[in-house]
Amino acid sequence: MVKENHRTTTPRSVWVSIVSESLQQQHITFPFLRSSTSRNGSSSKNGHKLTILRDLEERLLNRESLKSVARSHGVDPAQLRRWRRDREKLEMSSKGNKTLGKGRKSSITHLEELIIGWALELREVGIGISYSRLQVRACQVDENFRSKPKEQQYHTIRRLCMSNELVVRRGTNVAQDPPQQAIDQAREWLEEIRPFISVPDLAQIYIINMDQTPLPFSLASQSTLELRGTRSVTIRQSGNSKTRATASLAVAADGSKLKPMIIFKGEPRGTIATRELPVSQYANQLALCCQPAAWQDNENMLMWIDECLVPHIQQRADGAPVVLFLDHFRCHYSDTVKAKLDTIGVQSKLIPKGCTSVVQPIDVGVNKPFKDRIKSQWWEWMIGFGEDGGNIPTPSREDVQHWVIEAWNSIGAHIIQNAWRKTDLSYFPEE
């Protein structure tokens, strides 16, 4: 329980203003009253500088000197003259900027792609990042950076983030765009795309949608039925309940399914990826790989094209078009992925941001039944350990592979066709 403190206090800025006004009459200044500027004025926000300049104009009309005004605000007269000279620039950059300059250039700009690019990929999937996390990343990719003092590392990373417009933001729980806006945007996109996919030589089997969905190793609910009045409620979970993988699923408009891919956590060329996964009993039915964070990246996206997409389209007639719908996940539209798709004659179409829940077939009608079937598999697996109350181990990677195959095979063509149909008929009902 949070205790509320109803005591009211005078903000320090108000207190400083009161004391400053009192001391101005006595022509006295104190360094501690310079709360808005440092010795060179660099910490004063541009908006506050403009406030001081407006006060200067008024007091100059009353025949006060610039030095006396500077003294009353605790700034150097030369500094005040510079502000007057740069007033136009201050007015143009007064919203939130602290200074006119951008600061010292980062000393690790050569690592921008490895650090900032990596950070943006994390943000694409909603992973929280921090200066310290990027500091660790920089130490991993650059030996010279690792040899620097920790404090210097931190400030170097912070400077690099600022130069790339990366700032600290608090997570929001409210949708950024109104639902109607997404619907209107989706409608406009569908009106543009439907003539493209309605050409006679484009078979439905070659109209494909691909997306990723998380695969938690434990799907235990946080709530349960229990007798009223029970003081302690326990819910059994399997070990490492936060471990997860990622499934990359793809479906075609005719109701057919492409081979699924599972991305486990691990090094792409580590022991799991090179020794365990290739000898799995399910290796022929799944595309299996590893990634340090267990999500889709540029490398395993190329692998998905080779092992899942190419086998699906290899029987097409020469020159027959293929369309692949993807969302705005970063690796879906990288230069290497685009080049790969162009090489095999596949046209990729990006679904507008914020519209996947209404126009992406996998989101609309496939992910939910797939996850329900995965949970049923996990439930049967949990019950198999009986009621002795002992510790339940973490599901193995082969367990997860088995669940995915069983769940994917049980998704009927009618479920997939209905998902495609819903994305179309939601906005173009039959007359």
From TrEMBL:
Cellular compartments per GO CC: nucleus
Keyword field contains Mitochondrion: no
InterPro entries: CenT-Element_Derived, DDE_SF_endonuclease_dom, Transposase_8
Keywords: Endonuclease, Hydrolase, Nuclease
Domain of life: Eukaryota
GO biological process: DNA transposition
A UniProt-annotated Pfam family: HTH_Tnp_1
Residue ranges of domain DDE-1 in the record: 244-420
GO molecular function terms listed in the Swiss-Prot or TrEMBL record: DNA binding; endonuclease activity; transposase activity
Presence of keyword Nuclease: yes
Ranges where the record places region Disordered: 71-103
Protein name in UniProt: DDE superfamily endonuclease
High-level lineage: Eukaryota, Sar, Stramenopiles, Ochrophyta, Bacillariophyta
